[in-house]
């Protein structure tokens, strides 16, 4: 495992300058140890110490990036076998496979679906993130043209796949600024592709016919100084793939075996021709432990469950998802519109806001920071009581937006209405429904009164 917070603290400058955004060096060290801060945030650490701390505190599964800028996809960085032990770090990248043997209309149709498949769930945008371009025609110019087309029509990260090393090299050089994943180094081409990856500063996939061969090739690349690797064990059956994924993760985390300390790439699309079975294998890989999951099709009805499974598994169980504390305007509220308040747990916000929107009654929804806790839990923890709501109301600016002084609180908080009226003597406190599903009818009655 990485260094402890105290071990990191001993190597920091101990100036407590606050430049990193944290008041003390000890607090910064603790955040580094738990992955809540980046080492680069401290401007006073020397390069030698940065390297020392970075290597010693690096996760057993190296973090590897594909793509650049806003489209950069981070893989790996994992430190545990099971989510409940801590958390999983970087969700898998769902990847569309395109082949240069496909006809132009099919390629264009797949690209269109890829770009249009976007979902929003509790404030998080869910979508496929990589495109794998595979050379199967044996025609280098045709492969290059497909890579160029994908680059021109999308800005996402790429996985370049071709057994023709020369064609792969040309394609990689043509789009090296996109930092593509070069697929794949094998025992036969390891030196050539290893040197190419170093020259272009691009991540490199490693493929073996089995785990032993994969280990040998990865070890050789590490000896060459190639650090950003993605592993493919070569397994093309569901059972063998699962076995290999578990062995690779356990070897990296428990045995500290460096050749397996990298994210993996898996190909459900090459295991079966059945779309349903492909989705089932892909779902298995979300949990155990595929980092790049390559699919033959991007279809909303099969991809959405995969994205949702990934969201659930890769959400930190110790940190509830939360939205920003502020006044949210739903519809086009006026000075006569109702004002409601609730906590900032993401699911609470999106359920409540959805019901308010359904009501067609323009409203102000005030979201109070409850550290991501639900209404009753926040009330029990003292984060959604009269003494916390009242200051928020006074400082929020809501009084400048409305001419009435009526505040609707969740039905589960009916017990604090008296205290809240004492804290806000100019306001009338109204008790809303307990269930969000009853909000449309309640708001329609409110607006008609």
Shape: globular
CATH topology of the largest domain: TIM Barrel
The CATH superfamily of the largest domain bears the name Dihydropteroate synthase-like
Number of extended strands: 17
Q: Briefly note the structural class of the backbone.
A: alpha/beta
Question: Oligomeric status of the shown chains?
Answer: single chain
Q: Report the portion of residues in β strands.
A: 15-25%
Low-confidence stretches: none
CATH architecture of the largest domain: Alpha-Beta Barrel
Structure description:
- This protein is of the alpha/beta class and about 450 residues long.
- The protein folds into 3 domains: about 5-55, Electron transport complex subunit B, putative Fe-S cluster (3-methyladenine DNA Glycosylase II, Chain A, domain 3), CATH 1.10.15.40; about 65-315, Alpha-Beta Barrel (TIM Barrel), CATH 3.20.20; about 325-449, Rossmann fold (3-Layer(aba) Sandwich).
- The chain is built from 16 helices and 17 strands.
- The strands form 5 sheets. It has an 8-stranded parallel sheet. Strands 13-15-14 form a 3-stranded mixed sheet, with helices on both faces. Strands 1-2 form a two-stranded antiparallel ribbon.
- Helix 10 (about 275-285) runs parallel beside helix 11.
- The N and C termini lie far apart (about 65 Å).
């Amino acid at each position: 495992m990485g260094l402890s917070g105290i071990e990191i603290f001993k190597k920091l400058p101990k100036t407590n300058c606050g430049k990193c955004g944290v008041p003390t060096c000890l607090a910064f060290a603790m955040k580094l140890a738990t992955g809540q801060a980046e080492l680069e945030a401290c401007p006073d650490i020397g390069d030698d110490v940065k390297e020392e701390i970075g290597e010693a505190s690096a996760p057993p599964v190296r973090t590897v990036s594909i793509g650049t800028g806003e489209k950069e996809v981070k893989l790996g960085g994992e430190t545990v076998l099971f989510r409940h032990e801590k958390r999983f770090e970087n969700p898998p990248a769902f990847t569309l496979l395109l082949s240069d043997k496909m006809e132009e209309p099919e390629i264009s149709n797949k690209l269109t679906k890829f770009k249009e498949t976007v979902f929003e769930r509790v404030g998080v945008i869910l979508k496929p993130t990589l495109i794998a371009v595979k050379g199967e025609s044996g025609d280098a110019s045709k492969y290059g043209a497909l890579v160029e087309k994908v680059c021109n029509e999308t800005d996402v990260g790429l996985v370049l796949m071709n057994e023709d090393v020369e064609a792969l090299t040309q394609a990689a050089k043509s789009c090296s600024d996109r930092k593509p994943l070069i697929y794949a180094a094998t025992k036969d081409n390891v030196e050539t592709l290893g040197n190419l990856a170093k020259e272009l500063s691009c991540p490199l996939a490693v493929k073996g016919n089995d785990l032993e061969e994969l280990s040998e090739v990865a070890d050789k690349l590490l000896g060459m100084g190639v650090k950003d690797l993605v592993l493919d064990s070569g397994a093309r059956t569901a059972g063998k793939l699962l076995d290999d994924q578990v062995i690779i993760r356990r070897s990296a985390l428990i045995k500290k075996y460096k050749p397996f300390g990298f994210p993996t790439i898996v190909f459900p699309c090459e295991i079966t021709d059945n779309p349903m079975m492909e989705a089932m294998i892909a779902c298995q890989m979300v949990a155990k432990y595929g980092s790049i999951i390559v699919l033959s099709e991007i279809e909303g009805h099969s991809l959405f469950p995969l994205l949702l499974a990934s969201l659930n598994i890769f959400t930190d169980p110790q940190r509830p998802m939360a939205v920003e504390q502020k006044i949210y305007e739903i519809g086009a509220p006026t000075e006569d519109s109702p004002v409601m308040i609730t906590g900032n747990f993401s699911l609470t916000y999106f359920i409540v806001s959805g019901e308010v929107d359904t009501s067609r009654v323009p409203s102000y929804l005030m979201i109070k920071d409850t550290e991501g806790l639900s209404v009753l839990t926040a009330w029990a923890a003292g984060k959604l009581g009269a003494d916390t709501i009242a200051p928020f109301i006074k400082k929020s600016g809501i009084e400048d937006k409305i001419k009435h002084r009526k505040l609707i609180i969740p039905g589960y908080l009916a017990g604090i209405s008296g205290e809240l009226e004492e804290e806000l003597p100019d306001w009338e406190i109204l008790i809303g429904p307990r269930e969000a599903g009853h909000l449309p009818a309640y708001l329609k009655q409110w607006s008609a009164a």
